[in-house]
Amino acid sequence: MLPGGVVWGGRGLLRWAGLRLWSRRGPLVLALLWFGSWLFLNGLVLVHRTILSDSCTDQRSRRILQRLCLEFGEGAVAGDMCEDLCVRGRVQYQRCLYYQNGKKVLEAFWGGRRVVLKSKLENFSSYEPLGLLDYQDAADELTPLDVVFYATLEVRNSLGLAEEDEDEEGGGANSSLASQWGQRLKSRGRSYSRAELASLWSLLQQEEYTFLRVLQDLSTHVAQVLGSCGHFYAVEYLSAGRTWDQNIFSLEEAAGPPGPRGRWSVRDQVHRVALSFLDMVRHFDHDFTHRLHLCDVKPENFAIRKDLTVVAIDVDMAFFEPKMRDILDQNCSSDDDCSFFDCASRCNAERHRCSRRRRNTNLQVICEKIFRPWFSPTILGAKAGLPLQVELQQAVQECSETGSDVGEGEEDEGREETSGSVHQRLLSILTRLLQEGGASGEEGGAREKRGHAHTALNF
């Protein structure tokens, strides 16, 4: 019997108990539901704002370029692209390609030529100003030789090339990359304006620009810098590789000249691109004062020109030997702590310190990430069993494992000899495959003539 003299059955009793329980805990449940909904909605707002803050929209991109032109009109920035961008209208914005953490990458047409506009930071004011410009007299008295001095120091700092390092014996004939580039600045006859100095300084704070500009006339395997305005610089537009494409690159856009049996087949083009990869590896390993390490090897970071030359288009993770050693030099408890993206060394168990020498190579990583998927039996199909194709697969397998078992104390000469042997073997097999396919004996890789020379400020 319940209060009031009412007698209920089993179901009634349960219903009554449930109401009593809800009357006690209901407000708490409602409060928890309200708080959970509040957290969820605020999370959505935060995510939405984050996405919008790094959104790659046309409206925002156009505003950035308009702001740049406003600064040009005020005499704050300069460059050989500024007149065409802001006055003549010869630089026409097309779309935003990438925008994250301030880095802006835009596609545009410059005088009918497709180009990519880049800047590490969105705003010119975000870059560290050149301190000398704070002193009016000092800025007015700067000579081209003074500019060379400060610019060369900044280039050396950006690339990790100390002055004494550049004088050490190296692997190539180019004795001083930073100094060679400085000679171009010195050739200028007149002094630099404040806008030119400020613009140059903002560009030198962008490692990728410095890297590409220094190698401008020394390598066909890096994207060409075509011009600049303020903190934005233009490079040649090249279609990047794609992980999901079995051929990686859009080979139909680079059909090549007709050979004895017509245009190159797709497999012939793949073999020629592979040969260009091998040439790039040899070039980066031996043709500069210090070896150049590629620490982020993936299809998206490379492109090909119409002559099938492989080009490194994203070099944010490319480092010369001195800087590579500084990066690898860190505390460790195992070899896993000694990997910097695709560049790895070994952990010294006694000192708990990573070796400053990289244990794998550019060739090994390219074989593993580019060649192995390219020349897998799945892709080759019925041709996978042909003698030369089998030999190529074996060579790629050996190449991808080269250096994996190298100890910290192993001499560089032995490692160089092994890597060179694998490189030569791949070169021989790919050349024979081209000959077997009846391809033209002419090699791709000649640099295209540029319609616009990057001359403003000579940077």
Q: What is the strand arrangement across the widest sheet?
A: 1-2-3-5-4
Structural class: alpha+beta
Low-confidence stretches: 45-53, 166-175, 439-453, 455-459
Helix content: 40-55%
If you compute it from the alpha carbons, what radius of gyration comes out, rounded to the nearest whole angstrom? 30 Å
Number of strands: 13
How many H/I helical runs? 15
> SSE order, as H and E?
HHHEEEHHHHHHEEHEEEEHEEEEHHHH
End-to-end C-alpha gap: 96 Å
Q: Report mean pLDDT, rounded to a whole number.
A: 81
Specify the overall morphology. globular
| Biggest beta sheet summary | 5 strands, antiparallel
**SS strand fraction:** 5-15%
Main traits of this protein?
disordered C terminus; 459 residues; 5-stranded antiparallel beta sheet; alpha+beta
Describe this structure in words.
The radius of gyration is 30 Å and the shape is globular. With 459 residues, the protein is α+β, with helices and mostly antiparallel strands. The protein has helices at 10-53, 58-73, 82-86, 136-141, 144-159, 163-166, 177-186, 194-204, 207-214, 266-286, 321-328, 362-374, 377-380, 387-401, 412-436; strands spanning 91-100, 103-110, 113-119, 225-229, 232-236, 292-294, 302-304, 310-312, 318-320, 339-340, 343-344, 347-348, 353-354. It contains 15 helices and 13 strands.
